[in-house]
Amino acid sequence: MTLVSLTVVFVLAYFATLGYASDPSPLQDFCVAVKDADAAVFVNGKICKNPDLVVAEDFIYRGLNKPGNTSNPIGSRVTPVNVNQLPGLNTLGISAVRIDYAPNGLNPPHTHPRATEILVVLEGTLYVGFVTSNPANPAIKNKLFTKYLYPGDVFVFPEGLIHFQFNVGKTNAVAFAALSSQNPGVITVANAVFGSDPPINPAVLTKAFQVEKNVIDYLQAQFWWNID
Q1: What whole-number distance in Å separates Cα of residue 115 and Cα of residue 59?
Q2: Residue 151, Cα to own-chain centre: how many angstroms?
Q3: pTM above 0.70, yes or no
């Protein structure tokens, strides 16, 4: 195979990979979601509403100007606008959130399994970061990337990586984010590991975290808040 042929194969493979990098592309102008309770079958995403019945209200969400209630132990609140709140997002591969933080409020370490997130700070000062996936070399630790963000700053969290935001200021903070999926999903690390139902066998967690069983028992007995 010639060098030119190899180059063509590589370029085609590269762009084919890009084609599957986020939600599938729509095959029509829009596909307004039908509520799961009204759908006769389950599909990967949402069933399309009859286009003849689609109205302008299917494409609008009101309320992101309103602060979220941060009166919880974590001190933050996420207000999502994904396909579940805005049916017109179905098949479009994008969604948004508003995040409010009280002083010392935290959006705890979590991951979005289906989306990259780009975050912009409107008010306050945030300490943000993400951790890389496991390196190929087991002797190398996962790398942490962090920054302090101020109003107008933008930071990106790559798809699937554990990340967080912490309000280090003395006033409330507000940020907005866009995510590259109509339904990005969220896995809050502590909630998933210590607050699952049924709980993970303590022997598994004792071995994984190399701590005594009473530590695991204590953590599993806590109430793990969901701030979404």
Answers
A1: 21
A2: 21
A3: yes
- Amino acid residing at 86: L
Q: Is the pLDDT of residue 187 over 60?
A: yes
Banded pLDDT at 43 (limits 50, 70, 90): confident
- Residue 175 one-letter amino acid: A
Q: What is the pLDDT of residues 113-139, one digit of tens each?
A: 999 999 999 999 999 999 999 999 999
Kindly report, residue by residue over 64-100, the tens digit of the pLDDT.
Answer: 999 999 999 999 999 999 999 999 999 999 999 999 9
Identity of the residue numbered 133: S
226, 143, 133, 24: CA torsion to nearest 10: 70
